[in-house]
Amino acid sequence: MTASRKARGLVTIMMAITGAAFFFGFLTEELGHVTPEQAQSVPQELIIRYIVAMAIGGALSGLVCAGLFGRHGVGGWVLGLLGAVLASLLAGLIGSAIGQVPDMAAGGFNMTEVISIAFGLVLIPLAMAGRPVMIAVWAVLMVVTHLLARRARGHD
Hints:
- The chain crosses the membrane at residues 7-27, 47-69, 76-98, 118-144.
- This protein has helices at residues 3-31, 36-40, 44-65, 73-107, 111-121, 123-128, 132-152.
- The chain is an all-alpha fold.
- The chain has one domain (3-31, 42-152).
- The two termini are 18 Å apart.
């Protein structure tokens, strides 16, 4: 396996973890603001569907943005930061679109799905808004992703 492919695989895995984790974190936070009865009314299948969809969205965004991670020097860190932001936004967008597929297949494509998919674009920023721990977790995940890709590329 080439160094580039190894780096791409690592970034893909790390972004899958990030996508699923941030959806789960966002959901957990939001469910904390509703009554227990309201929280119980959310179908478990829907939660699982979206965790899986966000993991797939994260993986695909990592695949697309992997070339920005793991580069050498200050410029590499700048590219890594750009990759982290872009991959995170794309993870939410793609994951949300994947999560909507069963609904669109059952009821057709309408404006509600478009809004839900667009909301996915800001899922990770919303999950971090006003939550310093989530910001720190995201930063650590992105630094680890960059360092793993850097090692895979042989830049250590």
